[in-house]
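fyi for ur records
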Amino acid sequence: MGEAGPAHRPRAHQAAWGLKALTLAALTLAVLAAALAFTALNTSRIGTARVGLEAVLSAAVLPYAASGRLIASRRPDNAIGWLLGSIGLAVATSLFAEQYALYGVATAPGAVPVAKAVGCLASVGAVATVLLLFVIVLLFPDGHLPSPRWRPVLWATVVVFIGWGTQQFQAGTTVTGGLTNALQVGGATYPNPVGFLPRYGWYSDLLRVIFIVAVVTAIAVVASVFARRRGASPELRQQLAWLGYVGALTVAWILLMGLTNWLVPSDLNNGWLGQLLWGLVVVTPVAGIPLACVVAVLKYRLYDLGRIVSRTVTYAIVSGLLVGVYAGLVLLATHLIRLTSPVAVAGATLAAAALFGPLRSRVQRRVDHRFNRARYDAERTVAAFAARLKEELDADAVHDDLTSTVHGALEPAHVSIWLAERP
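which gave:
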């Protein structure tokens, strides 16, 4: 057999990367589905506030998986797509690990194997989420550092990730959960079963050094946004501005949480206000950064993928809304109507499936209206022509109207229309 020609190699190469991106997205969605299933079984232990936080974080996973898969398959050399997909997997893993452990330790003790060992992955997923968010901010929006001088910051992020990762093997610590601390809320914390590193001494000193490095690295990552903004084009400034909004809002929640801790220390850990502020601190960057990337793609044509991304974002938004509906119905059924968990899960699934079609149509129109205005205007132009066609009988008037409609909707270089006479 002859060797494939040069024209086929790039296409095959892109198809291979597309398959890898699809595999990453499919794995993320599978882990997320398992996390939601165990969350439904644990609703009686974690309460309404944590179920809401789980639902919001689960919905945040979807734009990560969707936008990551799309960008990685179309632009495999751009790190942004792979980072988005990896963050989605890290968030889903953290949610699954803590809910799995909560179910196996407290809700149904012994019902699932190695529950305590799996629970240790919750904090690993949380740490990976935070540090990958640092990296994506450092590389946003083109997947490259602002300049080679920023390489030490990237390597420092890797060092912090490895250092915090080893903390999961520190003896004498307690497993409390991941992004939502579900084990602590559910009263199911337990001693670290895989700890072998010393609780105090040299390793404790090493963690203090790593913490200092982490703080300096976080400041440097924020500074990189301002460094990239200097001398940037107006479009790039707009792209970076969305990250600035997310960062400013996150800092505001952190300051408010610190103020609350100072004024009402007990409320931060036990009260609804403390849980709400902690949820906002977690959700704002986790959900805000992928949305900033998606807006950059849609509104500012960051990757020239506007039409494709608009459809992807529509399904991500619809899926997120359905996740919220699903979680709310499960919570309503289990707490108010007192249905058993399997019945509640089945009923919520059927309701979400029934809402999918009409919800998708409405969201697609809103997304097109906001970000893909050309398609929105074209559809409105064609719909208006179809309405006029029902009342117009003159062939010449139809010909002129159709010509102007095609020009307005498609903007072609030339239009030719033939009208066939009926026999």
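The two ends are 56 Å apart (CA to CA). thats all i got for now
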